[in-house]
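Notes from the 1:1 (GR / supervisor)

We went over the backlog. Supervisor wanted to see one worked example end to end before approving the batch request, so GR pasted a single chain during the call. The sequence is below; no edits were made to it. Supervisor asked that the structure be written out right there so they could see what the output format looks like.
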Amino acid sequence: MFEVSERNSKESAKDYVMRILIDNIINVKLEPGEKLLDQELCEVLKVSRTPFREAELTLAQRRLIDIRPKIGTYVSYIDAALVEEVRHLRSVLEAELAVMACAVLEKEQIDRLWENLAVWQMYIQKKQEDKIFLLDKQFHGMLYKMCGRIYWHELVENIAPHFDRTTILSFRCRSMEHILQDHEDLIRAIEKKDRLKAEKTARRHMERYTENIDTILQEFPEYFR
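Structure output shown during the call:
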């Protein structure tokens, strides 16, 4: 079911529409191939047609929706090749980040990573995939920011929705425990300043997609291009 949150006080109408649509696409509340009912969504979001259309054009450029002239606008199907490109890029960047973290992270920052992991464990027990997904995003985001690689993070987040959709689907058909274990192993390597271990763990973590993709394709074949 389509989910709507409140508009932030400084958020433009276009940015608000984009945020809500992306959140629903990532969490498969808007399913691949589903037609967007523009007028109905404008009413739900309480925005005019102009910012909604502007948001659609931007999302089409980012290949998250398909605009078919005189036919309609549809949520894009998942492109497995594109997802693999995003995974590969993240693997390269986050392996480098892991090495960097061994040199620059202080105890207080490492403690924040452990706190994230503790909350993860609670939500895994409750099987709340939306909370787990946000904590996973937060964990990786903290590493980028703690290492002073803000632009890297912005670059990754711009293309992340393609990969994020498969992450959500993997939560629905694969155990989450191995992801949690990867995070724990990475923190321990950073604590010990073991650069080789940290790099290997980061790369292994990003290779989980290649382990999961066959199961995801089998469970959700209708979502893929």
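Supervisor's comment: The two ends are 22 Å apart (CA to CA).
Batch request approved.
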